[in-house]
Design goal:
Largest sheet: 4 strands, antiparallel
Helix content: under 10%
Shape: globular
Strand content: 35-45%
CATH architecture of one domain: Sandwich
CATH topology of one domain: Immunoglobulin-like
Radius of gyration: 25 Å
Number of strands: 49
Distance between the termini: 61 Å
């Protein structure tokens, strides 16, 4: 019976390999064995994690997910129907799972990765020749409304699997191509912000690049199916300096009993350590089964060794340090886990998290700003609920997100189930429309901080953090938090129409004035709400009463 299961699963995987060469099934023999093991194991029960009512459904595999700042969800893959509507390989959903009827660019073949730029435009890459009704060979860009961006004309001659947006707006591209934007590029290249090829960046890899990860210092981690990167021996993993030259000190390498081990997913933690997933039995000279972790210098983390029973395809990192893992496995950390698992920061298995995605695999993970977890791949059930290739898990705790500042220091504190961000960009505005860059935040305990500033008295501050996910962590997007300076009291007094006070406002910000009666402040009641005009605002209470009344003004950030 086991032999029969292995044979049947091997045939299925050969089809999968043809349709999705980038998802790491490189050895039909070893993968067939992994799949027969899956079928032989009992289904684990759900403990402590449930699927929410997000159930759009896709008629085929989902590879890419990205979350926009407004909560809408971009989805890419091998499907032609999404949420019951015709959508050719790409679509967009509202947070509740309903299809965005206005967004329907369409692609001519599968979409492998998506990246939301800071201006809201959407990079799309995969194996298509048409996007949005226009010729776009493997690579294109959409405006936020889904209309093709005609100013972006770059292309690749074969499939693109991963995109990584740098802090300067340049885009690193990885895949199985030999040409990028009419320039010779062997499986990796870089585009300028306008889509033109960066002529100074040409490291080259002698095999497919399946995953990219940006470090905070601008260096670029590269994983895939190669043995040479930047002209140097680098078995399936290497690191490039920002100019594209190879980092000579970083050479951990992987190995495996199969003919073709590979790295298919990379992610950088808050402490700078590097998660590595794929199909291998050794990382950095240490025994590691399909998952491992490197220190920032490339040496293996000797204390991190959970082990996965099959290839690892995607990571999702939460701000509390927890690590979500998706792939093609039935065991993880020595316990039954069907294609999705969660680890604590030290690499031990989170035994409360066992939602199970069956029967095939999880290729895409995305942590939303509210802590809920998007799961994409090839499955029919998620956490014991019927879900066709796309679903969402409720968060198992609260996301923490607090942006505070005075005129010299901005602190963005993040924790809990919020998505971890790899880098930040901080800006300020005095009108809620025009934003001026302050710079990137630096890591502090529990978040990010930028000091030495001199902010205007009526400033609003915006913090953006950039997140990765999807298949191979080849997709990216950003989360955003805004705050305004607490209202500054200008004057107060008693007039003919009762008590009044004046404060300085920020244009576009919402101000809620509340009152509380009694000798000690207790329950607050809304007196009024207004939108700031960027000037002095006067609030009057015509009936302040004869006792003690407290007043306060709360400020919300501008849209």
């Amino acid at each position: 019976m086991k032999t029969l299961l292995g044979l049947v699963s091997g045939l299925q995987l050969l089809v999968l390999r043809k349709q999705r060469p980038g998802f790491g099934i490189r050895s039909s023999i070893s993968s067939a064995f992994a799949f027969s093991t899956l079928l032989a194991l009992p289904l684990v029960s759900v403990r402590g994690q449930t699927a929410d009512d997000f159930n759009p459904g896709a008629d085929n595999r989902v590879y890419a997910t990205a979350v926009q700042p407004d909560g809408k969800i971009l989805v890419g893959g091998y499907f032609t129907t999404l949420g019951g509507q015709g959508r050719s390989y790409i679509g967009r959903l509202s947070s509740d799972g309903s299809v965005d009827a206005a967004f329907n660019p369409g692609a001519s073949a599968e979409v492998e990765c998506l990246a939301v730029q800071s201006d809201g435009r959407i990079l799309v890459a995969g194996n298509f020749k048409m996007l949005g009704g226009q010729s776009c060979n493997k690579l294109g860009r959409l405006m936020p409304d889904g209309v093709i961006d005609a100013s972006f004309s770059s292309a690749a001659d074969s499939v693109v699997y991963c995109l990584a947006i740098q802090a300067d707006g340049k885009v690193v591209v990885g895949g199985c191509f030999t040409m990028l934007g009419a320039q010779k590029r062997s499986n990796i290249g870089r585009l300028n912000a306008d889509g033109s090829v960066d002529m100074s960046f040409n490291p080259g890899a002698n095999g497919c690049v399946e995953s990219l990860a940006m470090q905070a210092d601008g260096r670029i981690l590269v994983g895939g199916f190669f043995t040479v990167l930047g002209g140097k021996s680098r078995p399936c993993i290497g690191r490039l300096n920002s100019d594209g030259t190879i980092d000579p000190a970083f050479n951990p390498g992987i190995a495996g009993p199969m003919s073709f081990p590979y790295v298919s997913s990379l992610a950088v933690q808050a402490d700078g350590k590097i998660l590595v997933g794929g199909s291998f039995t050794s990382l950095g000279g240490q025994s590691r089964t399909n998952i491992g972790r490197l220190n920032a210098d490339g040496s293996p983390d000797l204390l991190f060794n959970p082990g996965a029973g099959g290839p690892v395809a995607s990571f999702g990192i939460q701000a509390d340090g927890s690590i979500l893992v998706g792939g093609f496995f039935a065991t993880f950390g020595g316990q039954n886990r069907w294609n999705i698992a969660r680890l604590f920061q030290d690499g031990s298995l989170d035994t409360s998290f066992a939602p199970a995605a069956t029967p095939s695999y999880v290729s895409a993970l995305a942590v939303q700003a509210d802590g809920r977890i998007l799961v994409g791949g090839w499955f029919t059930t998620l956490a014991d609920q019927g879900r066709s290739n796309l679903g969402r898990l409720n968060n198992s705790g609260s996301p923490n997100d607090s942006l505070v500042f005075d005129n010299s220091t901005v602190s963005w504190l993040r924790g809990g189930t919020a998505p971890e961000v790899g880098r930040t960009a901080l800006d300020y505005s005095t009108n809620g429309i025009d934003w001026i860059a302050l710079g990137p935040g630096a890591r502090i305990a529990g978040g990010w901080q930028l000091s030495g500033l001199s902010l205007p008295a009526q400033a609003a501050v915006r913090a953006r953090g950039f997140v990765t996910g999807g298949s191979g962590n080849g997709s990216s997007w950003f989360v955003e938090t805004r705050a305004v300076t607490p209202p500054k009291l200008a004057a107060l007094g008693v007039g003919t129409n009762g008590f009044r006070f004046t404060f300085e406002s920020v244009a576009g910000a919402t101000y809620v004035t509340e009152t509380c009666d009694g000798p000690v402040a207790g329950t607050w009641n809304t007196l009024e709400q207004r939108t700031g005009a960027g000037a002095l605002e006067t609030v009057a209470d015509p009936s302040p009463g004869g006792g003690t009344r407290f007043y306060r003004v709360r400020a919300a950030p501008p849209p």
